[in-house]
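Try this one yourself first.
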């Protein structure tokens, strides 16, 4: 019972250590309080902006853009990745293009998307979708190509039709790797959306709130918005991790 109680509280160790280090930094005067307010003051301000609802429009705007970008990335990336993964020759023929854009920082493509879509919400969603889609596509294709050969061969030896081998064996085997891509993609979508909100004329969003607070030297609001952004990213990742454990319970089993 004691061990169960201890394990239940383990996730709190990291945040408490972070707050302790934060307070130590202030107490030891390693950083001036005007640049880094005490954690108590920042958390109090966090509660105040939520209680007043001041931060909610920006939070919902960022959540909407992130989920819209991620949804588009999944709708395009998963089917395309599965099709390419089913034919290794097809994947190898476009591998350079995929790896080239996957290795290019999405922020470097912001000027290109500005020319195409202008300063609009569509721009932010489009560039985030593009960056996330490449991650989903790569992981989906990789998962299909690296399905356990023994299971595929066993199904083929038993005379299972090719369509069923692909649908019931290769596709199911690829799901763990696909979910790795989905978790990475939703985090990437959030990062790109935040950057776009900062630097592509935006009137709402956590990125806009962060850069606005920095420009007027409202450090409490800046750190509050950063904390909310980090918490949002953590919750999105946690949600996909729990979904993965529930849906892909056979992952890692022989």
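Now uncover the answer:
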């Amino acid at each position: 019972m004691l061990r169960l109680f201890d394990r239940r509280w383990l996730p709190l160790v990291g945040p408490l250590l972070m707050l302790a280090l934060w307070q130590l930094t202030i107490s030891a005067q390693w950083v001036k309080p005007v640049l880094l307010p005490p954690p108590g003051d920042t958390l109090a301000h966090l509660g105040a902006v939520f209680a007043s609802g001041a931060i909610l429009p920006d939070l919902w705007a960022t959540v909407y853009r992130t989920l819209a970008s991620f949804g588009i990335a999944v709708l395009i990336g998963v089917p395309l990745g599965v099709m390419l993964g089913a034919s290794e020759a097809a994947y190898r023929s476009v591998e350079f293009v995929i790896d080239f854009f996957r290795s290019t920082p999405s922020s470097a493509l912001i000027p290109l998307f500005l020319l195409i879509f202008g300063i609009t919400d569509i721009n932010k969603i489009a560039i985030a979708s593009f960056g996330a889609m490449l991650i989903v596509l790569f992981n989906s294709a990789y998962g299909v190509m690296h399905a356990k050969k023994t299971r595929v061969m066993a199904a083929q030896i038993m005379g299972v039709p090719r369509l069923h081998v692909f649908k019931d064996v290769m596709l199911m085997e690829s799901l763990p790797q696909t979910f790795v891509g989905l978790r990475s993609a939703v985090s990437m979508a959030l990062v790109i959306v935040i950057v776009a909100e900062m630097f592509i004329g935006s009137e709402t969003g956590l990125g806009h709130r962060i850069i606005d607070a920095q420009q007027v030297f409202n450090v409490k609001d800046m750190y509050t918005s950063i904390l909310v952004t980090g918490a949002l990213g953590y919750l999105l990742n946690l949600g996909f991790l729990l979904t993965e454990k529930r849906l892909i319970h056979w992952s890692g089993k022989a």
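Discussion: The chain has a mean pLDDT of 83. Residues 43-49+57-247 form a domain with the MetI-like fold fold (CATH 1.10.3720.10).
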